[in-house]
Write a structure and sequence with these properties.
The complex is a heterodimer.
Chain A lengths: L1 H15 L24 H19 L2 H7 L4 E2 L7 H7 L8 H23 L7 H26 L12 H6 L5 H18 L15 H14 L3 H13 L9 H4 L10 E5 L13 H4 L20 E2 L1 H5 L11 E5 L8 E5 L17 E5 H14 L3 H14 L12 H15 L6 H8 L2 H10 L6 H4 L20 H6 L11
Antiparallel strand pairs in A: 1-3, 2-6, 4-5
Chain B lengths: L4 H13 L3 H19 L1 H5 L1 E10 H11 L3 E4 L9 E10 H9 L4 E6 L2 E6 H10 L4 E9 L9 E4 L5 E3 L5 E7 L4 E5 L6 E4 L8 E3 L9 E4 L2 E4 L7 E5 H5 L6 H5 L6 E4 L10 E4 L12 E4 L2 E3 L2 H5 L6 E7 L2 H4 L10 E6 L5 E16 L8 H14 L19 H5 L3 E13 L3 E13 L6 E14 L4 E15 L15 H7 L22 H4 L7 H7 E18 L5 E20 L22 E24 L3 E24 L21 E24 L3 E12 L8 E12 L12 E15 L12 E8 L4 E8 L10 E14 L4 E13 L2 E4 L9 E4 L3 E16 L3 E18 L6 E2 L6 E4 L6 E4 L2 E4 L3 H6 L11 E3 L19 E5 L4 E11 L2 E11 L2 E3 L17 H5 L21 H5 L6 E3 L2 E12 L2 H6 L4 E15 L28 E11 L1
Parallel strand pairs in B: 2-5, 6-12, 18-21
Antiparallel strand pairs in B: 1-3, 4-5, 6-9, 7-8, 7-10, 10-11, 13-14, 15-20, 16-17, 18-19, 20-21, 22-23, 22-55, 23-24, 24-25, 25-26, 26-27, 27-28, 28-29, 29-30, 30-31, 31-32, 32-33, 33-34, 34-37, 35-36, 37-38, 38-41, 39-40, 41-42, 42-49, 43-44, 44-45, 45-48, 46-47, 49-50, 50-53, 51-52, 53-54, 54-55
Helix pairs in contact in B: 2-6, 13-15
The chains are: A mainly alpha, B mainly beta.
Chain lengths: 493, 1147
């Protein structure tokens, strides 16, 4: 009996001797978790800031399409970057790291904006703050879908915060038309909600109503709604808040961020730890030591300027201040590298610390888009003042004969945009919008024999071309493989 | 009651078995009387006072035991202990008291020193008639070193007749019959048996070798007789650990246990091999075993490796899931149980062990000497169209330098251990102190360690025991960066710097500066200006780690009723590591750095100070109950509850620079991070809790059929709230065939056992304490016309509240056979281990937060065979014993998430494919060289290539067929990092006082990418080349070399040094791990200097390694313990050959 009693007693002790379930609820001591975050206006602001921060990811490889895929830039092959080479030669495959980086970077921004739009509903906010959070979020979301739809066509339209891994598998592609409907809705809302400009220094660089309208103008232009485009762009223009800086050099000067010409830009800065340097600086320089200047030591040769681009400049064009030319010593002995210095920060003390911003929308774009709309509306003469304003700043006289016909004006605008916006990621999208992409690019490829083979992807026997299907880029292969039921690859990839 | 238990049982068993029992008590009594005459001083002088009325006899006896040093031996069945007695004695001799207690009963008492034997008098009558036919045998017992052994139990087999040897090891045993067997037994020594054939003297030597099935093995939360074990457990005892001059237990185990792979990836002082028990089961979690140090479970290998090998009593490895499942949660990778020594009954014993020797690098690279080097350089320059600099034609200016000799040295090694142990009936203690000075074979690297261990166990009453065990270790080591990321232009590690350095340049300048190529106006134009002077780096790099590690435990155990033991233990494991690094201003690291002794460069200074503390509290409670039914059914039941809490804490401070202070240090006055103008710090803290209920039942029927089952429930805070608890069951069975009567006639077989087991174990060792939970990532953005930084926060992924345990399910079948009286033992195990893994599975990136989320997906299988073979080939005056073990493991990834065919990246050269073992090695396969212009047209090129470059196999293309291009599609499977089998082979010889022990170990079938060779296989004009590569180089179409070495001075170096088959080597090796020769000094000599035992020995560790691997260490592995990235050698610290002499003294 004694034995049984002792054993029973011990059993009782053991089964009461247990930690409570709450003892196991351990949460990180050093880092924040999502649980209770986004419950104050400050926390929402931090979350919104991250949408801006994520723009850096979304635009990391944007230039590989905007410039590299076009006739403006080429990849110095010595860096052996297969992704860049295939982009330059119009042989993009679906496993390309460039498309997957644009894809995931853009959706990163979108997820941040969706999160804020959702979380702000549960926080008591002043009307001003509500407008700010909603307007800025919608501008950024609209911008991202505009990029996605132009690059990939039909993509998943995510408008809510994805909370579980299952949800991420559940969302499929939306039609291009519906995506444009959403973009226009977002940008129209943003244009209503946001102020035209900011007075506080710490706000300058955030999305404004004018930025939303400018982007909307570009969307309308893309959709061939020329009168709508002209109307809204004129709205921005007449505010006189943005204008051309007298000196082209100042627009890109890292010491003058968010100047009067800039409507929206992805921001970088020098001298911070962790670094906030703009990586585009080095990517525009040759990947060999060609000069003595400190910033020239960091090149990766990804976006070198083509000879045809440099030849597109008129001799006295002041914009050539941002073009440098140095002779190759080891990689392609004798070849003259031409490269853009728009992302150089003259104030940097270490090699890779450029604080230069990546400009997405600026006043010159408004002028040339207005000209484009006027021309499309068959008013080439009315387009002439806009283009003249841009050329005058570049120190160039404008021959009025360009306004002879709609077609001649279109070609003049195409030329002007090429030299005005070189190295700003516009070229591919401009040609795509005007429908001239295949004509221009195929001519560029055919000219291969005249230049260094790398510039045009000129091989020994075959000449590259941009086929019809190549007007869209492939959806990242891995994403299609991962969710084949919901995501269909673009044709021919 | 504890004290009389052994004899009590002896009585019981004997009565059942044999009527001869009748004699026993009498024999003991006679013996007692004899001894009493010699030894009755205590009984004669001790007086006791007692006052009891109508009290149970047992209480009176207990009182006597408590009041005096007397203790009683009696059989409870033969003595009426509940009889009520009354006694009133004041200051009486014990004999007087006993007379009073037993007058009028049939009980006779006998006093032998402090022992009092109580037995009924009818036993004595029986014996007297028989005693006439019986003889008396006497003799002495000594240990293998010739020292007398006191306290040895000497019994006649099959009876309870027995005695214990005295202080001089002498015994006398009356009442023995012809052909009876005399059994000598002593804890920790092999039991010996000898047949009595009428000799009057038996002298016995007992040795510590404990081969055979009578061993006791440590199992989870207890011990078990090896014969009763039904699972797969391998053990290694103290003697085998001590004979090797190593500094940590893992090194001492190498080659001695089947089923366990030890990979000594790094020879740095203080570094221990990586341990794998039955392969790799996890893709993202740790694959290291759980260590249980004296009952304290920890996954901190540092605590395990801080144990002095001499302090270890035994190491037991739980290999199958059934044995490990009792440690459920963290036992998925097997368990290593360590039991440290505790004091033994007897006189205090002191030991001193001193080992001292030298260490040398076991292997060096054979680099091109001055002449061959200059020949290659000239040829390379000609091929590159460069002029030959004058220096190369001026041998009188050359200074021949073997740069490996510059960094390597013959380093001293010293290991001193002093111990004291002893104990009385109620208390025992063990103390040890150790000092280790382990200087590295690379200059300016060392480990020094001071350690202590103190254990004290006390029996407060017969039922209540307490004990403590504290083991602090303090170590200092200085590390050097040996591993280099060797590329075509850069050499960052010390080893890479040394081997690729120019063999015709000096180490020093005349002015006392280091010779630095980039600081010499002439040499900078000739040689690679990024090469550093490795000695400069070694001297400039002051990188020290000071660690304090301690395990401490205290227990209390209580036995409320017979057979039931309750135990509660509190353990702490503390590991504190302080780092202090400073890099001197005279460092001239690579290109552009001007630092030197005469020209210090403040910009070269870096520094760091860090501190990390891990504190673990562990509370373990168990109840064990031994019971039996009908003497045939034996049960041991265990239930327990454990709780553990771990805290990790770290701080680290680094210097910082900014625009105003571009150089962190303004002078060299303060040689640590506080000398920096600005500093930056990081800190972290996290915690982790775990608890578990567990239970186990062992059952055996007549020792023939064994059955064991256990279950454990664990909860870990690392997992999501939905899936926090894991259940880990196990079951095992065994059949001791030899116990069956039908086996009796098979004389050759002395033991045979078949085992079967199945069990499930877990793994929660994911990175960090909160793997299920994602945190917010913090970043910065900037706004404004004047840069204004703002904070940004965003979710970094998806939490997985369902994240649960990784589970291993393992089947094991084993066979243990002993032949010829267990002179030959064979153990075989086959197993099938399936591990459900946790991996970060891909999710569509439209989620915008993460590319992957951590999930319980995937499966890895390990199947294998282990064979252990022991044989005592020769016994007698010349002894020879052989131990051999071999283990085969086949690893395979059997499931991944969804359609994924690879875990991780397909771009790297170490890949993990579905359906393949982890760590496949992919590289371009060399098929020859481009020998002429036609070859360049005929064969596909890798990028741009020219004549004399390596030609690669066009294996495949994007469409899966060769496409005439060499690109990433042509990387092909060259090998796998995991060996097909590993083995160990030990031979020990003993002749009189001499002993010799030879331990070999090896692996077969693995491969490694020797990336280290990249930097020294360039055949350039800029740095040195391996002699073999230089000699085999492509010279011309007529002299194409060995067909896998490019020409000197290739214009297309990058395609020649891309990861290709010439860097992939087999890692097969056979290593003479240890050879030791010892001599035990004869007793006659020692007695004169009052020393009990002394052994002197000479030992050589890593004497030679037979291998075709050209690198410094065939086990070299840069990617650490990561199973999915094994197979890469970027140059690891070489393993040293250690030659030592030692002396062990006991007194």
């Amino acid at each position: 009996m004694k034995t049984k009693r002792v054993i029973g007693f011990i059993a009782i002790i053991f089964f009461t001797l247990s930690c409570t379930e709450s003892y196991f609820n351990r949460y990180p001591i050093d880092s924040l978790t999502e649980g209770a975050f986004y419950s104050t206006k400050e926390e929402l602001a931090f979350g919104l800031n991250d949408a801006y921060f994520s723009l850096r990811s979304a635009y990391t490889n944007y230039f590989s399409i905007g410039d590299l895929a076009s006739d403006n830039a080429f990849n110095g092959k010595m860096n052996n970057s297969l992704d860049n080479i295939s982009m330059n030669e119009s042989n993009v495959v679906s496993s390309s790291g460039i498309v997957s980086s644009i894809w995931s970077g853009s959706y990163q921004v979108i997820s941040r904006t969706n999160l804020i739009l959702e979380k702000m509903q549960k926080v008591t906010l002043t009307d001003a703050l509500k407008s700010k959070f909603e307007g800025e979020s919608k501008f950024l979301r609209g911008l991202m879908y505009f990029n996605l739809v132009r690059i990939f066509g039909s993509v998943p339209l995510v408008l809510t915060d994805i909370k579980t891994t299952q949800e991420a598998f559940a969302i499929g592609q939306e039609t291009v038309d519906n995506i444009y409907v959403q973009i226009i809705k977002d940008l129209t809302d943003a244009a209503t909600l946001l102020p035209d400009q900011y007075t506080n220094n710490v706000d300058k660089g955030r999305a404004t109503s004018l930025a939303a309208k400018t982007l909307l103008g570009k969307v309308y232009l893309t959709q061939k709604r020329y009168q709508d485009a002209l109307d809204i762009l004129e709205e921005v223009r007449i505010t006189n808040i943005h204008r051309l800086l007298p000196n082209y050099f100042d627009v890109f000067d890292a010491a003058k961020p968010n100047n009067a010409e800039i409507i929206f830009a992805v921001q970088y800065a020098r001298g911070f730890s962790p670094s906030m340097a703009n990586p585009l600086q080095g990517r525009h320089f040759p990947n060999e030591q060609v000069g003595t200047k400190v910033y020239l030591k960091s090149g990766s040769g990804e976006y070198l300027m083509t000879t045809s681009l440099v030849r597109a400049f008129e001799i006295s064009d002041r914009r050539l201040i941002y073009v440098d030319s140095l002779k190759s010593i080891t990689n392609v002995p004798g070849y003259m590298y031409k490269f853009s210095k728009k992302y150089i920060d003259l104030g940097q003390t270490t090699i890779t610390d450029s604080g230069s911003d990546l400009i997405i929308l600026r006043y010159a774009d408004i002028l040339l888009m207005c000209a484009e709309a006027k021309a499309a509306l068959n008013l080439p003469l009315e387009a002439l003042p806009y283009i003249t304003e841009v050329r005058t700043r570049a120190g160039l006289v404008t021959n009025a004969s360009i306004a002879a016909t709609k077609e001649s004006m279109n070609l003049a605008i195409e030329q002007e945009r090429r030299v005005e916006f070189f190295s700003e990621g516009h070229r591919w999208f401009d040609l795509l919008r005007t429908g001239r992409l295949q004509t221009v690019m195929n001519a560029h490829f055919a000219e291969g024999a005249k230049y260094l083979p790398e510039e045009t992807g000129f091989g020994s026997t075959t000449v590259n071309s941009v086929a019809d299907f190549e007007l869209l880029f492939p959806i990242p292969q891995y994403q299609v493989q991962l969710n084949p039921d919901k995501l269909k690859q673009n044709p021919n990839y | 009651m504890k004290k009389n238990k052994p004899f009590g049982e002896l009585f019981n068993r004997s009565l059942k078995k044999n009527l001869l029992i009748m004699r026993i008590a009498v024999i003991l009594m006679m013996l007692g009387i004899l001894q009493a005459q010699a030894n009755d001083a205590y009984a004669q002088k001790t007086r006791l006072s007692l006052n009891f009325s109508e009290t149970e006899l047992v209480k009176v006896l207990d009182k006597i035991e408590d009041e005096s040093e007397f203790f009683f031996l009696y059989n409870e069945k033969l003595l009426d202990t509940e009889r009520k007695v009354s006694i009133d004695a004041k200051d009486q001799l014990v004999s007087v008291i006993l007379d009073k207690l037993f007058t009028g009963t049939d009980v006779q008492y006998t006093i032998i020193d402090r022992k009092i034997i109580l037995a009924p008098d009818y036993l004595t009558a029986e014996v007297q008639s028989e005693s006439q036919q019986q003889a008396v045998v006497s003799g002495s017992v000594k240990d293998s070193q010739g020292a007398p052994l006191s306290g040895v139990t000497v019994t006649i087999k099959g009876t309870a007749i027995g005695t214990i040897t005295d202080m001089d090891g002498k015994f006398s045993l009356p009442g023995i019959q012809q052909n009876a067997s005399v059994v000598f037994s002593f804890v920790g020594l092999a039991t010996q048996e000898i047949v009595f054939t009428g000799q009057s003297v038996i002298n016995m030597v007992m040795s510590e070798e404990a081969i055979g099935l009578e061993e006791v093995v440590v199992v989870g939360y207890g011990t078990q007789s090896k014969a009763m074990v039904s699972t797969s457990i391998s053990s290694i005892n103290a003697e085998k650990l001590m004979s090797i001059p190593v500094t940590n237990p893992a090194q001492a185990m190498v080659g001695q246990i089947a089923g366990v792979r030890f990979q000594q990836a790094n020879g740095e002082p203080g570094s221990a091999p990586y341990i794998r028990i039955r392969g790799n089961g996890s893709l993202t979690s740790s694959n290291s075993p759980l260590y249980v140090i004296d009952g304290y479970p920890t996954d901190d290998a540092n605590l395990f490796n801080a144990i002095l090998p001499n302090d270890i009593e035994s190491i037991d490895v739980l290999k199958d899931a059934a044995s490990a499942a009792i440690y459920g949660s963290r036992a998925g990778n097997g368990v290593i149980l360590v039991t440290t020594k505790s004091g033994k009954l007897g006189k205090t014993k002191f030991t001193v062990d001193i080992t001292s020797g030298v260490q040398q690098v076991a292997k060096k690279y054979d680099m091109a000497g001055p002449d061959l080097f200059v020949e290659v350089v000239k040829e390379a320059r000609i091929n590159q169209g460069l002029a030959i600099p004058d220096f190369l034609n001026q041998p009188e200016r050359w200074v021949t330098t073997d740069w490996q000799d510059v960094i390597f040295r013959t380093a001293p090694f010293q290991n001193v251990q002093i111990g004291a142990s002893g104990g009385s009936e109620k208390m025992n203690f063990n103390l040890s102190f150790g000092y280790l000075d382990n200087q590295g074979v690379i200059k300016n690297s060392f480990e020094k360690r001071y350690s202590m261990r103190a254990s004290l166990n006390a029996m407060l009453t017969q039922k209540l025991k307490v004990g403590i065990n504290i083991a602090p270790t303090f170590s200092t080591n200085r590390a050097q960066n040996t591993t280099g990321t060797n590329t075509a232009t850069d050499a960052s590690g010390i080893l890479a710097d040394a081997v690729s350095n120019i063999p015709i340049l000096p180490v020093w300048r005349d002015n006392g500066d280091y010779f630095i190529i980039s600081q010499d106006a002439e040499m900078i134009t000739i040689f690679n200006d990024k090469l550093s002077n490795p000695l400069n780096k070694l001297d400039a790099n002051l990188d020290y780690t000071y660690a304090i590690r301690q395990t401490a435990s205290a227990f209390i155990s209580f036995e409320p009723i017979k057979g039931l033991v309750l135990k509660s233990t509190l353990n702490t494991g503390i590991s504190n590591s302080k780092g202090e690094m400073y890099r001197e201003a005279f460092l001239a690291n690579g290109n552009g750095n001007t630092g030197n002794i005469s020209t210090p460069n403040l910009a070269q200074i870096t520094a760091r100070r860090s501190n990390a503390t891990n504190l673990n509290l562990y509370w373990s409670n168990t109840a064990v109950y031994d019971f039996k039914i009908n003497e045939k059914h034996l049960f041991t039941a265990l239930i327990g509850y454990d709780a553990s809490r771990q805290q990790n804490y770290s701080v680290r401070v680094d210097p910082r620079t900014d625009v105003d202070n571009p150089v962190a240090f303004i002078n060299t006055s303060i040689k640590n991070v506080s000398g920096a103008i600005l500093s930056t710090g990081v800190t972290s803290k996290d915690e982790y809790v775990l608890d578990a209920f567990f239970g186990r039942l062992n059952y055996s029927y007549e020792r023939k059929y064994l059955l064991s089952g256990s279950i454990r429930r664990d909860r870990s805070s690392k997992f999501g709230p939905e899936n926090r608890a894991g259940y880990f069951p196990s079951v095992s069975a065994a059949w001791n065939m030899k116990e069956e009567s039908f086996m009796d006639f098979v004389k050759i077989i002395s033991s045979a056992k078949i085992r079967l087991s199945y069990g499930e174990t877990g793994n929660d060792r994911l990175t960090g304490s909160y793997p299920w939970l994602t945190t917010l990532s913090k970043n910065y953005y900037v706004f404004g016309t004047v840069d204004a930084r703002v904070l940004t926060y965003a979710p970094s992924g998806f939490s997985n509240a369902n994240l649960g345990w990784e589970k291993n399910k393992q089947f094991d079948a084993g066979l243990d056979i002993g032949l010829l009286g267990n002179r030959i033992n064979l153990n075989m195990d086959v197993y099938d281990r399936n591990s459900n893994t946790i991996i970060s599975a891909s999710i569509p990136t439209i989620n915008g937060k993460a590319t992957t989320a951590i999930q319980n997906i995937g499966n890895v299988r390990n199947r294998g065979l282990e064979i252990t073979f022991n044989s005592r080939n020769l016994i007698g005056i010349f002894k020879w014993q052989t131990d051999f073990n071999i283990s085969f493991n086949r690893n395979k990834i059997t499931a991944l998430n969804g359609d994924a065919k690879i875990f991780g990246s397909e771009a790297s050269y170490i890949r993990n494919y579905l359906g393949r073992p982890m760590a496949d090695i992919y590289a371009y396969r060399i098929v020859g060289t481009f020998n002429n212009a036609q070859d360049l047209i005929d064969y596909p090129k890798f990028g741009a290539q020219g004549i004399g470059d390596l030609r690669y196999d066009d294996v495949s293309g994007p469409a899966g067929i060769p496409d005439g291009k060499i690109d990433a599609n042509d990387m092909t499977l060259i090998g796998n990092a995991q060996p097909k089998f590993v083995y160990g082979f030990t031979n020990s010889f003993q002749f009189k006082n001499f002993d010799l022990n030879i331990l070999l170990d090896g692996t077969y079938g693995g491969s490694v990418v020797n990336q280290f060779e990249r930097a020294i296989s360039l055949n350039r004009q800029l740095e040195n080349t391996i002699a073999r590569i230089a000699e085999n180089r492509w010279k011309s179409e007529a002299e194409p070399g060995d067909g896998k070495t490019p020409r000197a001075g290739s214009n297309f170096l990058s395609s020649n040094i891309t990861t290709n088959s010439r860097y992939v080597f087999g890692t097969n090796f056979l290593r003479i791990r240890n050879v030791s020769i010892g001599y035990i000094l004869p007793k006659s000599v020692l007695q004169k200097i009052r020393i009990q035992s002394m052994r002197v020995f000479l030992t050589i560790a890593n004497l030679h390694t037979f291998t075709k691997y050209p690198g410094l260490n065939p086990e070299g592995n840069t990617n650490g313990d990561e199973a999915t990235a094994n197979g890469l050698d970027l140059g690891s610290y070489p393993v040293a050959r250690n030659s030592s002499v030692g002396i062990s003294i006991g007194f």
